[in-house]
Amino acid sequence: MAGASVARREIVVPKAPVLAMANRFGKYKPETEKAVRKVDVKEDETLKKMKTAWKACSYTHNSTMDYARMFKILKKILKKVKYTAKDVENFSIAIAEFQEETDFGGKAGFFLSALMNKCKDRQFAIHTNHLAGFIHYLGYKNTKNITVDGNAGVNVGWRMKCGTITVNGNARSHVGEGMEDGSIIVEGDAGRSNGWDMKGGEIHFNGDYNGIGFNVDGKIFHKGKLIIGR
After folding, report:
1. SS3 track for 123-158
2. Tens digits of per-residue pLDDT, 77-121?
3. Cβ atoms of residues 138 and 165 within 8 Å
4. How far apart, in Å, are the Cα atoms of 213 and each of 9, 155, 182?
5. Are strands 225-228 and 164-167 parallel, antiparallel or unpaired?
6. Is the four-CA dihedral 74, 37, 121, 217 of positive or negative sign?
7. Which of 96, 152, 172, 193 is 20 to 30 A (C-alpha) from 33?
């Protein structure tokens, strides 16, 4: 597939309530949709500031601008806060209170990615099983080691620079698009167009997948067998 010249199409995430999105996507809906868990996290000053930063951020579907703006806002609001990977994990649980917002999935993915990339810690756990819908773009420009407890939306590991992402669930389409290095492991099933414009690194699918993208210059494995790359 390497060498094909195909322009990247921007992925448009449907503007719909998260529960409706989960219903529409069939087998990729989280099992917890049957009874979405209400998970409480003790709110401390760090979590309050993260929520303040979330409310100050907007989402316009311009990935480069949105991410840069979120990163800038986080630097300003969390300037004197030495937050840890545990704080980010707690926020990934507390974020459920915002899930009825329009474009929640896209905003959440970029926001969590910025939180992790800005943090000095290396190992992160992100929880999604308690959500009715998907978080998209998790691990955007990733440089860390991330474990996703649950399903991931579209473009997990988009433009990833290094590190690892392990999804202990399903992932939607375009896994590892534009990634430069590192490793992505999807323990469940994945959608289509995976590895699109991949420049390096590895993707491992341990469940089923629905297709590979164009311009793949990396390694893709299916159930331990190398299927793309050398």
Report:
1. EEEEECCCCCCCCCCCCCCCCCEEEEECCECCCCCC
2. 999 999 999 999 999 999 999 999 999 999 999 999 999 999 999
3. yes
4. 11, 12, 18
5. unpaired
6. negative
7. 193
- Give the span between the Cα atoms of 101 and 211, in whole angstroms: 31
Any idea how long the chain is? 230
What's the pLDDT band for 37 if we cut at 50, 70, 90? Answer: low
Residue range 205-223, pLDDT digits in tens: 999 999 999 999 999 999 9
CB 125 within 8 A of CB 138: no
pLDDT score recorded for residue 42 = 73
Domain boundaries, the chain: 18-29+43-228
- Distance in angstroms (rounded) separating the CA atoms of residues 33 and 101: 17
Q: Helix or strand or coil: residue 89?
A: helix
Strands of the 202-205 sheet, one edge to the other: 123-127, 145-149, 164-167, 183-186, 202-205, 219-222, 225-228
Q: Per-residue pLDDT for 16 more than 80? A: no
